[in-house]
Write a structure and sequence with these properties.
Blueprint: H1 10-24, H2 30-37, H3 43-48, H4 56-66, H5 70-83, H6 88-99, H7 107-118, H8 121-128, H9 138-144, H10 151-163, E1 167-169, E2 176-178, H11 189-206, H12 208-211, H13 228-250, H14 287-295
Antiparallel strand pairs: 1-2
Helix pairs in contact: 4-5, 5-6, 6-11, 7-11, 8-10, 9-10
Length: 307
């Protein structure tokens, strides 16, 4: 029996729920769902494939078809809103609603994942215990962090890292040490939580220029133009570089400080010419004048001045 509360992705739920119902009743088909929802029979498959989203009306229709009571319908609606959220804050809002549901079977794991990535200093504490002889002096460990964190934050961080099996206490030395425990990337909460973590670290990075002398920091930025093929190659270069960094630091035998390396690669402009969607042509400011100049023997596109 399919349990709705074991899902954080509504498309996965709809796929599994449909297959279960169809296996017991051949009349429960894509056409049956299309008739109930009032759309083309191919639409349900497009929804399962992620090619179409659910509208508000369709959420209500699908909830009537696949949910048993008001609690399930509410959970289903929040799950759709979570999966289709357009912003990080909206995604976080609906994820919190899902994991707060009493019946939610992924509650403990999702909450721990969310808490870990929602505070930048958890990763710092995990690295600090590899060389700092922590035995319960929360305030002292908190002062090792830059910027410093409170003793209560250290205490909760240590508890969380233990719960996630990311650190453990060595019974012989009494000190904590790092383990190979990792957050599972299979959870639907993962991308939302990671976005929060990146956001936190960007906030910390903003103050690094004021908190550290230039001899202790290396900050730089670069703007450039390229095409989609080159961009894809750059993404892979960044991934390789990250792997090389991890391989290098894994060889460090006596670490004594925690560092952060931030790498961001994102567009600073729209592509040119802009893509045309659904047959609607986007007007390009100045394009008509440029075309006219070219017809009259004026500048070519490579000589257009910036304004």
């Amino acid at each position: 029996m399919i349990n709705l509360f074991e899902y954080l992705n509504y498309r996965d739920f709809l796929r599994d729920a449909y297959e279960e119902r169809h296996a017991s009743d051949w009349r429960f088909s894509h056409r049956y769902i299309a008739d109930k929802a009032g759309f083309d029979s191919s639409m349900f498959n497009k929804i399962l494939q992620g090619k179409r989203n659910l509208t508000e009306r369709m959420v209500s229709v699908f909830a009537d078809i696949f949910c048993n009571d008001a609690r399930e319908k509410s959970y289903f609606a929040n799950m759709v809103a979570f999966n289709q959220a357009k912003t990080h804050s909206e995604s976080r809002q609906y994820l919190e609603k899902l994991v707060a549901t009493k019946e939610c079977k992924v509650e403990d794991l999702a909450k721990d994942q969310f808490e870990y990535f929602d505070h930048w200093y958890h990763a710092v504490i995990r690295e600090l215990v590899t060389f700092y002889p922590y035995v319960g002096d929360d305030a002292a460990l908190g002062l090792m962090v830059r910027p410093p964190i409170t003793a209560s934050q250290v205490k909760s961080s240590i508890a969380l890292l233990e719960r996630l099996s990311m650190i453990k206490k060595n019974p012989e030395t009494g000190f904590y040490e790092q383990t190979q425990g990792l957050i599972s990337s299979g959870s639907e909460s993962y991308s939302t939580a990671v976005n929060s973590y990146i956001q936190q670290n960007l906030d910390v990075a903003q103050t690094a220029m004021d908190r550290f002398d230039k001899t202790e920091r290396n900050l730089s930025t670069l703007a450039f133009a390229c095409d989609e093929t080159t961009y894809s190659e750059l993404v892979e270069m960044v991934r390789r570089f990250r792997r090389e960094i991890l391989a290098k630091v894994s060889q460090c035998e006596k670490p004594n400080r925690v560092f952060q390396l931030g790498m961001q690669l994102f567009p600073l402009s729209d592509p040119y010419p802009p893509p045309q969607r659904r047959g609607r042509k986007r007007r390009i400011r100045g394009q008509e004048a440029l075309d006219q100049k070219q017809l009259e023997g004026g500048k070519d596109a490579g000589e257009v001045d910036h304004v």
